[in-house]
Write a structure and sequence with these properties.
single chain, alpha/beta, 7-stranded mixed sheet, 6-stranded parallel sheet
């Protein structure tokens, strides 16, 4: 799971729409109250602007963020909520100023659809960290005051800056989870130079994010160790995902044998867990990056002071890194492990996601099931 918690105040004059009428035929599934129960819903997308791309959604990944906001976990859900921020589709129309995309292109949309485009972070391609707050793809408030609605829908209209070209040879169903789960682990790996062949990487947790961290690690030429509380994941970690080693993190002997051996750790676990045992696995000057959301983070100062270690955090990524990641996955044949489902199965999928009963990402076949 990856999402930013800031809100935004964007200048309206930057986002003038030029089309006169909006399409009122967007089909979707939405939650109407904190039960989170999804059911069919129909609404109007905004009119196509001169800088916008309109795309027919073919696939949408299912992320834990969908659970968070359909069930009002943060107390800020704006019902009806149309979830989904791992969107893949095909361009059906472009605005008059759009140059990067054309009708028929394969395009992705991730966790945010707007930002100020003028702060230091936007200027550096880190729009998700916009100083005024990026606008979420769903349950966000856009510049015109409307509440954004996500990818459990037939189509979406997005400014071209926040759209990404999916290489033609890459399956759209596989591309969807990359727009949140993939970029969430790829961004800190690149920032902390976890792409140096021969270095060692530990991955805590083997869910939607963790399994992609393993795949990226192997593609970068790293020696990858999966750290999990569940021995049941050992065979898949080693044989399906190609990890070099599997360690049961509750086994003290196995953990001690790994002491001071890892250059990097990606921590994808959102459940509460101790940090000192994992920090002890890092070499001097090693880096642990947290991309999950446990309720608290506690560790002894000695765990980082004595080993000159770094604890860092990261949430999704900017437009530059996202496009780079999509191209990298296509070039290296990296595909998420997915279970494709119809929209009618979405409620069951969210329940299974809560129970961690998915290997490793649900992807909704919007094109063939949302009618």
């Amino acid at each position: 799971m990856s999402f930013c918690l800031r809100r935004q105040s964007l200048p309206a004059e930057q986002f003038i729409m030029t089309s006169e009428s909006a399409d009122d035929n967007c089909l979707a599934w939405a939650a109407r109250d904190p039960s989170g129960l999804l059911s069919p819903y129909k609404f109007s997308r905004r009119a196509l602007g001169s800088d916008d791309v309109s795309l027919n959604i073919t696939h949408c990944g299912v992320c834990y963020a969908d659970v968070v906001w359909t069930r009002n976990k943060f107390g800020d859900s704006k019902y009806p909520v149309v979830p989904g921020h791992e969107i893949a589709g095909i361009v059906k129309e472009v605005g008059s100023n759009v140059r990067r995309f054309k009708v028929g292109d394969h395009v992705g949309v991730g966790t945010y659809v707007n930002s100020c485009r003028d702060c230091e972070y936007c200027n550096d391609g880190l729009e998700v960290h916009c100083a005024r707050g990026s606008v979420f793809t769903f349950n966000g408030v856009d510049v015109d005051g409307t509440v954004t609605k996500g990818g459990y829908s037939s189509h979406i209209v997005v400014h071209e800056r926040y759209c990404f070209k999916i290489p033609d040879n890459y399956p759209l169903a596989s591309a969807a989870p990359l727009l949140c789960a993939g970029i969430t682990v790829y961004t800190p790996m690149m920032r902390h130079k976890m792409n140096q062949p021969g270095k060692s990487l530990g991955v805590i947790g083997l869910g939607g994010l963790g399994h992609l961290a393993v795949k990226f690690g192997k593609a970068f030429g790293l020696r990858v160790t999966v750290l999990s509380t569940s021995i049941s994941k050992k065979e898949e970690a080693l044989n399906l995902l190609g990890a070099d080693k599997f360690v049961v993190s509750s086994d003290e002997q196995q953990m001690m044998a790994l002491s001071r051996s890892l250059d990097f750790i990606i921590d994808t676990a959102s459940g509460d867990h101790p940090f000192d045992p994992y920090l002890s696995l890092l070499k001097t000057a090693g880096v642990l990056v947290l991309v999950g959301f446990p309720s608290e983070v506690k560790f002894s100062p000695g765990s980082i002071v004595m080993g000159m270690r770094t604890v860092s955090g990261s949430a999704t990524g900017g437009t530059k890194d996202t496009q780079e990641m999509l191209d990298f996955c296509a070039a290296h044949g990296i595909h998420p492990e997915i279970e494709v489902i119809p929209i009618q199965y979405a409620n069951e999928a969210l329940e299974r996601l809560i129970k961690k009963d998915v290997k490793y990402r649900f992807v909704i076949d919007i094109e063939n099931s949302l009618k």
